Known about the structure:
By secondary structure, chain A is mainly α.
Amino acid sequence: MEIQFTAELLPQALGVMVKGMGGIFAVLFTIYLASVLLQKLFPEMK
Amino acid sequence: MEILLEGIKSITLGQIIMICIGALLMYLGIKKEYEPTLLVPMGLGAILVNFPGSAMVTQVVGGEKGVLNILFDAGISTELFPLLIFIGIGAMIDFGPLLQNPFMLLFGAAAQFGIFFTLAVATLFGFNMQEAASIGIIGAADGPTAIFVANELASNLLGPITVAAYSYMALVPIIQPLAIKAVTTKKERAIRMTYKASGVSKTTKLLFPVVICIIAGLIAPASLPLVGFLMFGNILRECGVLDRLSKTAQNELVNLVSILLGFTISVKMTADQFLNIQTVIIIAFGLLAFIMDSIGGVLFAKFINLFRKEKINPMIGAAGISAFPMSARVIQKLATEADKQNFVLNYAVGANVAGQIASVIAGGLILAMFK
């Protein structure tokens, strides 16, 4: 393969980066909310 | 006599270099103890596949199918080996420290930044999206996920990606302090965090992996093989009635599959596949991914601190990578270096466990985006 820097691909590359990070934050934030809910519903009995 | 000398006469410079690389991997595994479970079998495999006419691999000219190719088709092409390892990893993980501080999940997300940053950079350097994504996934700091994703998207790059992923995981104690110190001050590294000892009920621990499976299934179904096997292992651990299976998953299963995994991957380490400029670039990009993971995590923690009264030690963000428990230990060591009385291990472990979940979710998202 030929290795060359193509600046024209920058918007596309940034788009993928934003979409990927957005996706991962969305899933992890949902898991966060679910774990807070689990903690509230099933607190540790002392 | 001629037959006996045939191998010596036909060996190429590339094959000699690969045999030396194999020996180096074995040296690093045995002498330096860098991920020996993978690097030792992989190093020996790299030596064995690079002899001219080696029956370990299928030869182009009229050879029978090599034994490593048979193992590769059975265990890697089918994704079986990395997934079986996930059962063992799941059985080893205690989600307790994470459930004590569920907020740490967000640091797990932030520390996957290196994956997507490197993906973007690799795209700019002319790799197609599938190849760029496979290179980026080195930043998951999670060997089985890297193998799983790379095999699906760019199987031709599997050799260098696996070498990079496992080598950098072994080098976390060197890479992370450099990256963290570049973006934090000593004062920031010395920030103390109050330890709030809250317990987690058994029911919560048992339901947590089930809930993660449901969320992943609904939001990111492509991640289900990775998430499902990981959480299956965790349920074996937490259900309380399958201790025997849990111990088997943690020990015998992981050990058996690890033996085969490293050895099998070496099928991709023949000189003609490995020795090229792409390999050098992939290994460089892998380092970039690890550095940007740590920086992404730290910068996210700093951003969160802008809105918090009780500050978070920004290094906790860097613990959100999947290299467990090494990363958490590195963070604690750096915290102690900055302030001898600083104890952040509990938070770091929580973020580190979050990184394990985040890395498999990231793998699934990448497959959903580019497969």
